[in-house]
Amino acid sequence: MRLMSAASAPRRDTRGIVDPAELLTRVRFRRHAPAPELRRYLEHYWLIDWELTEPYATHVVPHPSVNVVFQRYGPLDGPPHAPAEASAEVAGIGLGLFTQKLAGVGRVCGVQFRPGGFRPFAPAWPVSAWTGRRVPLAEVFATTGGEEGCDPLSAVLSPDADHARVAALDAFLLAHGPAPDPAAEQAMELVELIRSDRALRRVSRLAAASGLSARSLQRLFAACVGVGPKWVILRYRIHEALERAEAAGPAGAPDWAALAAELGYSDQAHLVRDFTATIGVPPTAYARGVSVP
């Protein structure tokens, strides 16, 4: 089972972003590929810069991925009494809708790992240790510098040029791994199978495809992905439904009953419940452009 490849370019879809068209009118959002030796483990780097005249809240249905996030709120050249606030953290897999309020000026430089791809960089803990948590970078990485005396927070956030930020992210990650990890490799392959094979709707089928027992599969996912295989299957279903609702727009809506069957739900009501619980509004209302609470 060899499904993965180290993509040379980051994906272009907006899966997981709630109302992406609105987001892209408010901020500068870009994705960049990491260094070749990192591509097997990372989805991409994501960079956001904003300069807003009024506050804006962005909403994301998280992927089953760990992110490392460098963020700065406020301009570097602001007045002394109001310096920019900068921080770096490891963001474990978010179990619910993630909301971030943006205001004024700021930037974020993030690393989205492939599901399972974070473990080779921090092998001392199961990835489930970070699920639902956002912790300072120093709590996960004993040292947070690449070259001696280098501050990764400044190296990543200070440059205005994208290529310089990408180079700083490459340097930081290459200083911390990746360490060879056959279990993480297997987990990445299995999550890619879930993502690419829409017919794979049950954990029992994934266990059969992997040659693992259901219990061993759960342990593998807890250690290397951070959530169970059933959760991953359900989350990719919601991403698909969100994308379909977004594409439909107010002019029309997908056949929700047919989509529910396609995604493996027992009925339309089950899909509507999952969508509403995750996004905050029913899929038909979201397709009409109703704001998320």
Please tell me the overall pLDDT.
Answer: 88
- Helix-residue proportion: 25-40%
Tell me the Rg in angstroms. 20 Å
**Count of helical segments?**
11
Model description:
- With 293 residues, the chain is of the alpha+beta class.
- It has a domain of 155 residues.
- 37% of the residues lie in helices and 17% in strands.
- The protein is built from 11 helices and 8 strands.
- A 6-stranded antiparallel sheet has the order 1-2-7-4-5-8, with helices on both faces. A two-stranded antiparallel ribbon has the order 3-6.
- Helix 5 crosses helix 7 and helix 9 crosses helix 10.
- The longest helix is centred in the C-terminal third of the chain and has 20 residues.
- It is globular.
Features:
six-stranded antiparallel beta sheet; two-stranded antiparallel ribbon; 293 residues
Summarize the structure.
By secondary structure, the chain is an alpha+beta fold. The chain has helices spanning 20-26, 137-140, 152-157, 162-174, 182-196, 203-210, 214-224, 229-248, 256-262, 268-279, 283-287; strands at 28-32, 42-51, 56-60, 67-73, 85-91, 98-102, 105-113, 134-136. It has a domain at 20-174.
Q: What does the secondary structure layout of this molecule look like, with pairings?
A:
Layout: H1 20-26, E1 28-32, E2 42-51, E3 56-60, E4 67-73, E5 85-91, E6 98-102, E7 105-113, E8 134-136, H2 137-140, H3 152-157, H4 162-174, H5 182-196, H6 203-210, H7 214-224, H8 229-248, H9 256-262, H10 268-279, H11 283-287
Antiparallel strand pairs: 1-2, 2-7, 3-6, 4-5, 4-7, 5-8
Helix pairs in contact: 5-7, 9-10
